[in-house]
Specification:
The complex is a heterotrimer.
Chain A: E1 3-11, H1 18-26, E2 32-35, E3 45-48, H2 59-71, E4 84-89, H3 103-113, E5 121-123, H4 129-142, E6 148-155, H5 159-167, E7 188-189, E8 191-198, E9 209-218, H6 231-244, E10 253-255, H7 262-274, E11 282-283, H8 286-289, H9 296-310, E12 312-313, E13 335-336, E14 341-348, E15 352-360
Parallel strand pairs in A: 3-7, 4-5, 4-6, 10-11, 10-14
Antiparallel strand pairs in A: 1-8, 1-9, 2-3, 6-8, 9-15, 12-13, 14-15
Chain B: H1 2-15, H2 41-55, H3 62-68, H4 72-83
Helix pairs in contact in B: 1-4
Chain C: E1 3-11, E2 14-17, E3 22-25, H1 32-42, H2 55-70, E4 82-88, H3 93-104, H4 111-114, H5 121-130, E5 136-140, H6 146-159, E6 163-172, E7 175-184, E8 192-193, H7 196-209
Classes of the chains: A alpha/beta, B mainly alpha, C alpha+beta.
């Protein structure tokens, strides 16, 4: 069975459609800016965040607007079909200090406003949530449980998450610089994105790509520190390639995780080196979007689809000088290249890693 | 100084949830990390919180923690100096 | 045909398994974290990291230790053949509140609490404890959904795993509920088939059996 993926959309500080977002990346514009007095001790912090004081960018509004756009890109009756499911990927939903369990309400509202036949499922697998949500969707379609699954990812910046990463000393004091020698940590970001997976090619208004395979794997090492050997990432990529029946030689581009912490980026370089993928062009989009947590995997997959449609590799923003344990091929300027097969990876707390393969249909 | 060291041991056991360990099990000069108490990188960050919360001493660079948290002796010494 | 080989149920009152045995009875009416610690001590496991876990991870950890005790065959699987599927309706609400308290009330955001404000961390703890490198998924559902567990398990057992440890695990103020079961591809004929109906039936039975609180 072929599984198709398309109808992608992104709402981020860089634009409110996938096309606007890709246009901004093509100009190497970043959404990262300094916010005064945002930290626990009122210090200024770099974020990729929406203009404040408007309800247009609340967690619920982002999802609603993003899904409305997606609905206009596929056959009109799909959302309310018995054979359609909505999967939501998020780490903390609309978390506020005074309300720590806000996901249930958002989910019910989405089900009502889009007249969905089934209650949406929320995937919460730390920073690998997005890729795992897409893989789960593909597995459900392959097993014949659903025919079409809309996968949306959203996370917004909150005091809760900011203070959390601050006390882990994980936030960079400058815009994050993935894979760069002088990287010092993450920049938090917010945004929302969605893609549609379906066994029916004809539901897409614009030609979709193909989802080939996707798996996850655990480091079994530490709950917050990445594995020094990149074990989980190595295993999930290896398994994904095996199931797809292809080798690293077939991959044209890797959309990596690249959070810009010292240990994460080193871990990825080790894993890709072990996989003989050190020569494959690779980027991280965190230098444009910051780390959007549960939305990251969906935003980055949507950009992969755009890169494939435009046959364009996007420069890994923030990278200037090599400085990972193993040398990898980081994209230093935008360039045209025919992209047939693309690998997307993510890693997160809990030692979780995930990967998926996309191909032109 | 001895009082401070005993206090630190109790606080470490409490804050890091070291249930099976008593203050008497922690030697003043024994390494806190590595095999000793089985502490890890999150414990190191929690010790930074402990110093600020109970002793009013702030560490801004976690790298400094490595030396300061090498033993109860070094922690007590650091606190005493910082408050002097 | 895939099978549901074994299960256990943890509540604030007791821990029971499918063999019908009441393993631990919280007659003293201990608070959940203390009850779980008592059980850990009675099982004589040497794993000091247990004490550092949040209650969700502690409950999942003990549930899996009990499944391992009753299913020796679990040790026979390769290190990436066991998948993990956990779900609840409240994510990490209990720990989220504690983390908010650490910064809003105590003015000292706690790193060790923050790392547990993702419910999926419990699967990381299981992976570390057991050296399992396989698939893992955590989902938030509005309520227990036997169909979801059956659909996902049967799907993941097709190609990605040979066994799947599943759990519905909720710990919120005053409520503790963990239903943890083992699904296997190669169960024997006497095992329960892995279907929506059988999972539903077991879940209802254990909920009914749960005796009223003595506290």
């Amino acid at each position: 069975m072929n599984i198709y993926i398309g109808a992608e959309n992104i709402i981020s500080p860089l634009g409110s459609t996938a096309e606007e977002n890709f246009g901004a990346l093509s100009k190497n514009s970043s959404g990262i800016k300094k916010t005064e007095a945002a930290g626990f001790d009122k210090k200024s912090i770099f974020f990729s965040r929406f203009a404040e004081n408007t309800n247009d960018f609340s967690f619920d509004a982002l999802l609603k607007n993003c899904l409305k756009n997606v609905r206009s890109k596929i056959s009109p009756d799909i959302f309310s079909s018995e054979k359609t499911l909505l999967i939501l990927s998020t780490t903390k939903g609309d978390i506020k200090s005074e309300n720590v369990n806000p996901i249930g309400k958002s989910v019910s509202e989405l089900q009502n406003s889009f007249e969905l036949k089934h209650a949406p499922i929320v995937v919460s697998n730390a920073c690998a949530s997005g890729v795992i949500a897409i893989n789960t969707a593909a597995n459900f379609i392959r097993a014949g449980v659903y025919e079409t699954i809309i996968v949306a990812g959203c996370d917004v910046i909150s005091d809760f998450v900011t203070y959390g990463f601050e006390c882990l000393f994980a936030i960079s004091d400058k815009p994050c610089a993935p894979f760069d020698k002088n990287r010092t940590g993450i920049t938090l970001g917010e945004g929302c994105a969605a893609v549609v997976l379906s066994s029916h090619k004809t539901i897409f208004n614009v030609e979709p790509m193909r989802f080939i395979e996707g798996t996850s794997g655990n480091d079994a090492n530490h709950i917050s520190g990445p594995s020094r050997t990149g074990e989980g990432l190595y295993r999930t990529v290896k398994k994904t390639l095996e199931l797809a029946g292809i080798t690293e030689k077939d991959i044209d581009f890797i959309s990596a995780h690249g959070t810009a912490t010292v240990f994460n980026d080193d871990m990825e370089s080790v894993a890709f080196d072990r996989l003989n993928m050190q020569h494959i062009p690779l980027n991280s989009l965190k230098g444009y979007y910051g780390h959007t947590l549960g939305a990251a995997g969906i935003i980055e997959t949507a950009i992969c689809l755009q890169s494939m449609r435009n046959n364009t590799l996007i420069k890994s923003m923030g990278f200037e000088e090599e400085g990972t344990v193993k040398k990898i091929n980081i994209i230093s300027e935008n360039k045209k290249l025919s992209l047939e097969t693309v690998l997307k990876t993510s890693s997160g707390f809990g030692g979780v890693n995930a990967s998926l393969l996309l191909k032109k249909s | 100084m001895e009082n401070l060291k005993e206090e630190l041991k109790k606080q470490i056991i409490e804050q890091l949830n070291l249930e099976d360990i008593t203050p008497a099990d922690i030697k003043n000069d024994a390494p806190l990390f590595g095999d000793g108490l089985g502490l890890d990188s999150i414990d190191a960050l929690e010790l930074i919180v402990l110093l600020e919360k109970f002793h009013g001493v702030k560490i801004t660079n976690p790298e400094d923690g490595r030396k300061i948290f090498s033993s109860i002796d070094s922690m007590a010494e650091y606190i005493t100096k910082a408050k002097a | 045909m895939n099978h549901l080989s074994s299960y256990c149920h943890i509540s604030t009152k007791e821990i029971v398994t499918d063999k019908g045995a009441l393993l631990f009875d919280n007659t003293e009416g201990l608070e959940v974290n203390d009850f779980l610690k008592t059980v850990y001590k009675k099982l004589a496991i040497d794993y000091p990291k247990f004490y550092k876990m949040d209650s969700l991870s502690k409950a999942a950890f003990l549930g899996v230790e009990l499944l391992k005790k009753e299913n020796a065959a679990l040790a026979e699987y390769a290190d990436d053949e066991i998948a993990l599927l956990f779900a609840n309706s409240n994510a990490s609400e209990d720990t989220d509140k504690k983390f908010v308290n650490s910064y809003a009330e105590e003015h000292a955001p706690s790193p060790s609490l923050f790392v547990y404000t993702l419910p999926s961390i419990l699967m990381g703890e299981l992976a570390i404890r057991n050296k399992w490198y396989g698939e893992s998924l955590f989902v938030i559902l509005q309520k227990f959904d036997a169909a979801f567990f059956a659909d996902y398990c049967n799907m993941i057992l097709l190609r990605n795993a040979k066994a799947c440890i599943c759990g519905w695990i909720e710990i919120t103020e005053g409520k503790t509920e963990a239903f943890i079961f083992l699904a296997e591809k190669n169960g024997n004929e006497n095992n329960t088939p892995l279907t929506k109906q059988t999972i539903e039936k077991i879940y209802k039975t254990i909920m009914k059996q749960s005796r009223p609180s003595k506290v």
